[in-house]
């Protein structure tokens, strides 16, 4: 007894610090300076998208023919367009449209792709072949072209842009999740869950799906950038938002006639799209480094 | 490939027929009577069941007949004849310089890792990926056409007309190729055979291009092939910005008029091009790495 007491007295006391993956993530995230900065920018952008219409200094729809095509000034920080509307106000309100369309499209595409990918990888057999051949067919169309074709069928408009962009996102998500599911279903914990009689749905969503989350988060972030570009391209081509809507792509499309005389009409919305997509790409790169340390610094 | 093309052709045919609006009414004009519209409908074969229309379409397609444009009344193949080659030149020119610059920037970034050429290369790459093509095109027009007057603002009259559109179209791919070349090359540079090469006294000018770069090219070729689709999609936007008389702009004009014979022929052609390029990429794999051989 004495000996045991003595041994206990010399055993170092390890502080009971609970490991938190979230804390670990934020610790590593702060080290990614560029991506950290970009994530702050995105956060601000999301806030602008929510409160934009309330903080806009001017009515984004109200024309003022006395101030048409004015360059940036103290009154109009980003200048005015051909109808005299304040471009800065339109950009603030447009943030909600541009972000809303791309977020919604990517999340719908991700939801469809996740379900199809999980089913394809988990069940295999004819279902896998059917889903993969289906995605092969969709991959036979270049992304933007597929979106253009869908909008051509459904007609122009933001709702149809969301549908088009989400449809072209589905096969990429399905492929990604299928790959992870094929790996995941061979793991010991899935075998254990199966032997305990867990249902297919439970195994797919409770055991395999969380394993795919790391790569999914990276991919979703990257896809939001792609979706913003695709949606603004469709609006630029006149297939997305109607011209009077303060959508960034539509604003740019309207402004191109004034490129020689008032280039700010084109430059400002273009800069907004560029910086937003850049921020999402930088965050995606940073997330990949944090969530997949193998690729760090490459 | 053939089954995929077959399914693609069915999808394109049926989906373009879902485009709202009556093509017979479009051809006949607003003031045409119902009788006249019905005559045109019969002439276009639109009164037939949809499957019969598909079979007729496919049998005509195999004979080189892509249909007749509802807007111009010209055979679609004739409309493509003038526009196909400018688009092909534009696409290959974009891919050409994107490959050269992408490989160069990627290689320099990997060789000078964490030094200024690397930072410069990667800032260029991430910016190129994030920049909307139509915006870059408009900036280039503003600087090089409007202000400096070096290049025309649009059209496809001379080689000069191709410079700005091809830079705009290739920028995204160049950036992506630079990133992939860098990461692939960094991985290869860590391999044992590179260490062996350096240990036996090979110069860096031999190790990098002959040993490292060649072995890093497989993922780069994959990306180049996949990105070809981006070029086809991007050409629609870029041709619109530069008023370039190519296939992409024709597609947008046709959508505006709901000229579905042109739309379906274009979509089919784009898909065939895309699938063919992916096939060429598969063949190139085995050329770059003889270990990869397909067993059938």
Distance between the termini of chain B: 14 Å
CATH superfamily of the domain at 105-292 in chain A: MetI-like
Helix count from the secondary structure assignment of chain A: 11
The number of distinct helices of chain B, counting runs of at least 4 residues, comes to: 12
Structural class assignment of chain A: mainly alpha
**Would you count the extended β strands of chain B for me?**
0
User: What would CATH call the architecture of the largest domain in chain B?
Assistant: Orthogonal Bundle
Structural class of chain B: mainly alpha
Shape of chain A: flat
Q: Regions of chain A with pLDDT < 50 over 5+ consecutive residues?
A: none
Tell me the strand percentage band of chain B: under 5%
Give the biggest sheet of chain A: none
Write the layout of secondary structure elements.
The complex is a heterodimer of chains A (298) and B (296).
Chain A: H1 2-10, H2 21-31, H3 33-55, H4 87-123, H5 125-139, H6 143-154, H7 158-184, H8 188-195, H9 200-236, H10 248-255, H11 264-291
Helix pairs in contact in A: 3-4, 3-11, 4-5, 4-7, 4-9, 5-7, 6-7, 7-9, 8-9, 9-10, 9-11, 10-11
Chain B: H1 2-16, H2 23-28, H3 34-43, H4 50-62, H5 76-111, H6 116-130, H7 133-147, H8 160-189, H9 192-199, H10 204-241, H11 247-257, H12 260-288
Explain what you see:
The complex is a heterodimer of chains A (298) and B (296). With 298 residues, chain A is mostly helical. Chain A has a domain at 105-292: MetI-like fold. Chain A is 72% helix and 0% strand. Chain A is built from 11 helices and no strands. Chain A has helices at residues 2-10, 21-31, 33-55, 87-123, 125-139, 143-154, 158-184, 188-195, 200-236, 248-255, 264-291. In chain A, helix 4 runs antiparallel to helix 5 (125-139), helix 4 runs parallel beside helix 7 and helix 4 (87-123) runs antiparallel to helix 9. Chain A starts with a helix and ends in a 7-residue tail after the last helix. The model of chain A has no long low-confidence stretch (mean pLDDT 86). With 296 residues, chain B is mostly helical. Chain B has 2 domains: 2-62, no CATH class; 84-295, MetI-like (MetI-like fold, Orthogonal Bundle). Chain B is 76% helix and 0% strand. Chain B has 12 helices and no strands. Chain B has helices at 2-16, 23-28, 34-43, 50-62, 76-111, 116-130, 133-147, 160-189, 192-199, 204-241, 247-257, 260-288. In chain B, helix 1 runs antiparallel to helix 12. The longest helix of chain B has 38 residues, at 204-241. The model of chain B has no long low-confidence stretch (mean pLDDT 85).
